[in-house]
Design brief:
Number of helices of chain A: 12
Structural class of chain B: mainly alpha
Order of helices and strands of chain B: HHHEEHHHHHHHHHH
Helix content of chain A: 40-55%
Number of strands of chain B: 2
Low-confidence stretches of chain B: 1-6
Radius of gyration of chain A: 24 Å
Largest sheet of chain A: 9 strands, mixed
Strand order of the largest sheet of chain B: 1-2
CATH class of the largest domain in chain A: Alpha Beta
Number of helices of chain B: 13
Structural class of chain A: alpha/beta
Shape of chain A: elongated
Oligomer: heterodimer
Order of helices and strands of chain A: HEHEHEHEEHEHEHEHEEEHEHHH
């Protein structure tokens, strides 16, 4: 069967049109999901503008960014910039008065407090969200149900590179099975968090593992190898049930399984932890900062979910709200 | 054409009586078409050079080319590119081992054995394979070939050099077959007839007459296949892993140069850092390798080409 060229052209054009329509349709749906569901755009009267500077931990960064993206749906003229200089680097800038909000994956240290005080920076600490990392193994793995932090360190530390290759090197009664490691690549907050808590230093890790920014690759690697092991955000485990199995972690007080509850109540330690936003009280004098902070608290669960974190409990949210209200009272807003 | 000049035996005067502007425009447009690819190549080299030189200011070429640990994004960082080269050549080797004999075999069959009708249907069917997007081949390797290898008892990693290499090889069969077949079809029929007249069998004609006569075309198809295997990105990214190491065991996870470039380039490595420049240093290495290969092959082709008539 031969088609004449004109017919082919018409067909091709039709196909292109069809594809374009499909692509546009898809795009619109995506937008709805991204900006919708929260609240409607503010009426012209309370339309704010300005710029909010945030910096700090790369783990908390995605949370603040997700909040900023949603906030832009309500207050499109307020620009929120989120840097990722690390918790320490963030506090450095924060206490120098350069930023309004500091993202922190740990409470502020005494020496950082001192610098803030010296520079007359009054701040409020808000427990903004909870973070949980899961260590996952293959569903067929029936030996490693619970590992201690020391054992995880034995497997993952930089010195283990090229040496720890078999499960029986981790614990004597583990079977002779090759370990296949996968996990977050160096660009992610997950990587920073895991290396910090398991290996003691941010970025310290053996280099011979399957490192990928795409958690799905980690899932493929672990689900495809009996001796596989990987790590990623807790919320990703639920999405991949049956493919991988999260193991319990013993941080010194016995084995604890990762779950929303154990992360929220702090018992899943050290791979579950609270994350903080430090806000400069003086900045609350600016309505856009004030509005942004209350937006973060009001939509906490939704932002947490979007950025793959574990939301606050009602109680934690109340405490954060109380802290925020007290700070507002301080500036007389 | 009966121009008076022709009768005198001199070259005919082809120059127009007056300038044809339309012709000039067409010539210009056509020259531009040719220039686009040349300029793009030059642009790529320039774009590669600057960050790559920046990289070599911080990391010595010696360390880059002779040390054996590749972990540019980790602490402590090391920049030995050999594991990536090893990965690239392991995958390419497997692919080539597959596509060269099968491609040549297919070409011999199509050109010497197949009846015209068979050939007319088989060749386009073979070429359809060349039109499948590599991302599809990548998932085919990961979700079909790897489990298949496991089911026949090979202890392969979930990401491994073998299945990626095999699938690249399969992908390249039509390239080799199609180009080689073209070269064989172009061999003068008189050569075959002569051989048959001397009592040669069909196999003898194919392997001793046609293949040697078409060798330059066959080698050219091989070189194209090797270049494409070296440069193949999506399949290795999906199916071969991101674990740079020196090994000749095709069952293990490896990382190729292209996979490193793609994975790192799409991550959020800050611009201007050594990490970022690493991408370009590897890119330049890749470029130099393919360039060297092409030069060598052109030489080879010239040397072994058999010219008839």
């Amino acid at each position: 069967m031969r088609m004449n060229p004109r017919k082919i052209t018409v067909l091709a054009l039709g196909l292109v049109l069809l594809l374009t329509a499909a692509a546009c349709g898809g795009g619109r749906d995506g937008d709805d999901e991204a900006s919708g569901t929260t609240t409607e755009v503010a009426a012209d009267g309370d339309r704010l503008s300005g710029r909010i500077e945030a910096d700090g931990s790369s783990t908390v960064g995605p949370f603040t960014t997700a909040a900023a993206e949603r906030f832009a749906g309500v207050q499109p003229d307020v620009q929120v910039t989120v840097g990722i200089s690390g918790t320490g680097g963030g506090f450095e800038r924060f206490c120098a008065g350069e930023t309004d909000i500091s993202n922190a994956s740990r409470p502020i240290k005494d020496e950082e407090k001192a610098i803030c005080e010296q520079n007359g920076i009054d701040y409020v600490e808000l427990h903004a969200v909870n973070d949980g990392l899961a260590v996952v193994v293959n569903p067929d793995n029936d030996w490693a149900t619970c590992l201690t932090v020391e054992e995880l360190n034995t497997i993952w530390r930089a010195e283990a590179e090229g040496k720890i290759e078999n499960w029986n090197q981790v614990r004597a009664d583990f079977p002779d099975e090759r370990i296949l490691l996968a996990g977050a690549g160096t660009d992610s907050g997950t990587f920073d968090y895991f290396t910090e808590e398991i290996n003691g230093d941010t970025g310290a890790i053996r280099a011979d593992y399957q490192a990928s920014e795409d958690d799905n690759v980690t899932v493929q690697a672990v689900s495809g190898s009996r001796g596989g092991m990987g790590f990623f955000g807790l919320s990703y485990v639920e999405e991949n049930e049956g493919e991988v199995k999260a193991i319990e972690v013993d941080g010194g007080d016995g084995c604890v399984a990762p779950s929303t509850e154990t992360v929220q109540d702090g018992s899943y330690s050290p791979l579950g932890r609270p994350l903080f936003l430090y806000a400069k009280v003086e900045s609350f004098g600016r309505p856009e900062v004030q509005e942004f902070m209350s937006f973060v608290l009001e939509n906490n669960a939704e932002i947490a979910e979007a950025a793959l974190f574990v939301p606050l409990t009602d109680e934690q949210l109340e405490t954060a709200q109380a802290g925020f209200d007290a700070a507002l009272a301080e500036v007389g807003a | 054409m009966a121009t008076p000049e022709l009768t005198s035996g001199a070259r005919p005067r082809l120059r127009a009586e007056r300038r044809r502007w339309g012709e000039d425009v067409i010539k210009g447009v056509l020259a531009l078409c040719a220039l686009v690819s040349v300029l793009t190549t030059a642009g790529i080299v320039l774009a590669l050079l600057e960050p790559a030189l920046e990289f070599f200011r911080e990391v010595s070429i010696r360390e880059f080319l002779t040390t054996t640990r590749w972990a540019p994004l980790f602490e402590p960082a090391s920049f030995g590119v050999l594991p990536l080269l090893n990965g690239t050549f392991l995958v390419t080797g497997i692919a080539v081992l597959l596509c060269m004999p099968f491609g040549l075999g297919a070409a011999i069959y199509l050109s010497e054995y197949a009846r015209p009708r068979v050939r007319r249907t088989l060749k386009p069917a073979l070429e359809v394979l060349a039109g499948i997007p590599t991302v599809v081949f990548g998932f085919f390797a990961l979700t079909f070939v790897t489990p298949l290898l496991r089911s026949i008892g090979l202890q392969v990693d979930i990401f491994n050099a073998l299945s990626a290499g095999l699938v690249i090889g399969v992908m390249l069969i039509p390239t080799v077959a199609s180009l080689s077949e073209d070269a064989m079809t172009a061999v003068p029929q008189s050569l075959r007839d002569g051989a048959y007249a001397l009592g040669s069998s069909r196999l003898q004609v194919s392997t001793r007459i046609v293949v040697p006569a078409a060798i330059s075309g066959i080698v050219a198809s091989y070189v194209l296949a090797i270049s494409r295997a070296v440069g193949e990105t999506m399949i290795v990214l999906i199916a071969a892993g991101q674990l740079a190491r020196i090994t000749f065991d095709p069952r293990l996870s490896i990382e190729t140069m292209t996979a490193f470039i793609a994975a790192t380039g799409t991550g959020d490595v800050p611009r201007g850092t050594v990490d970022y420049n690493t991408i370009f240093a590897v890119g330049l290495t890749l470029f130099v390798i393919t360039l060297a290969m092409n030069i060598v092959s052109i030489r080879l082709v010239r040397r072994y080409r058999e010219v008839y008539e």
